[in-house]
Amino acid sequence: MVSVCQTRVLFHRGIVTAAEPACNRQPGCLEARYQGGLLSGRRIRRVKKDAVLVVVSYALIYVVWGSTYFFIKAAVATIPPTIVVGIRFLSGALLLAVIARLRGGLRRLPDLKEIAGAALIGMLLLLLGNGLVTFAERTIPSWTASVVIACMPIYVAFFNLLLYRAKVSPIRLLGAFAGVAGVGLLLFQGSNPVDHIGTGMMLAIAGALSWGFGTSIAKSLPKPADVLVSTSIQMIVAGTAALVIGAASGVDIPSSIAHASAWSIFSLAYLAVFPRYSSRSVLRWYSRVS
Q1: Which H/E stretch holds residue 280?
Q2: Mean pLDDT, range 234-244, rounded to an integer
Q3: What is the pLDDT of residues 150-183, one digit of tens each?
């Protein structure tokens, strides 16, 4: 039997990929050592911790991010969509800016090209993408909106093919369609999506297409190197534009908030914090260790 200190562990980005005998010194020794690749006790604990974090991260993504459209539906029940979008993104931008400042991400201010690039991404992804879906959920069920958004990989693949001639393998395309079918199966509530085809459905599809187009061109646009700074600019632009559109259309923000239900206000607060920060932070962490 090979003891812990006799096992050489091969790592790839912090995750154990293989193990093989490394030495024959001190047979039966239970103390792990790190000598030229030998697994240390600290490394063992790290691997176990990472394994737990992977499970927790998936749970956060499925529960927190997956609940986004449910809470959007609840928020727009008594609050105008422009206010939901505006307050959600402006409050989120403020929090992100504070975090970026604490992390030192604001040491170099972005130039005009980077600001313009981030602003365009914010208009496509947040104002049009998320904003149109938010408007749509006043008339369509949240599960229907979720299925439309679940088609995002297909939209992105389409725009990548159209703009960059990027080919998509049949396996990936099949996986994207399987994912859409899975979301529909999990969220199906007995009604036929065809029954909801109308202005709301068209808005949701337009929003999803805008999000897909923005995701596709984002890779070629200049933007701040710091992700938090870039996202803050996107949210400021989208949130401000949404409130301006609301004010221009006659929406009274103070009165709308005063007459909103407690459940809608809670849902708006939830949307301003949890889906955007917890899930994206998890995804960034997971991309580093996978």
Answers
A1: helix 280-289
A2: 96
A3: 778 788 888 888 888 877 778 877 777 777 677 6
Distance of CA 58 to the CA centre of its chain: 12
Torsion angle, alpha carbons of 187, 271, 243, 156, to 10:
-50
Please name the amino acid found at residue 211: W
Q: Where are the beta strands (DSSP E) in the chain?
A: 7-12, 15-21
Beta bridge partner(s), residue 19: 9
From CA 125, how far away is CA 133, in angstroms rounded?
A: 11
Among left, alpha and beta (phi > 0; psi -120 to 50; other), residue 278 is alpha
Q: Which two tokens stand for residue 91?
A: 């409050």
Do the beta carbons of residue 86 and residue 272 sit within 8 Å?
A: no
- Is residue 146 classed exposed, middle or buried when 0-12, 13-18 and 19+ CB atoms within 10 A define those classes? buried
Q: What is the widest separation between alpha-carbon atoms in the chain?
A: 79
Global confidence as pTM: 0.72
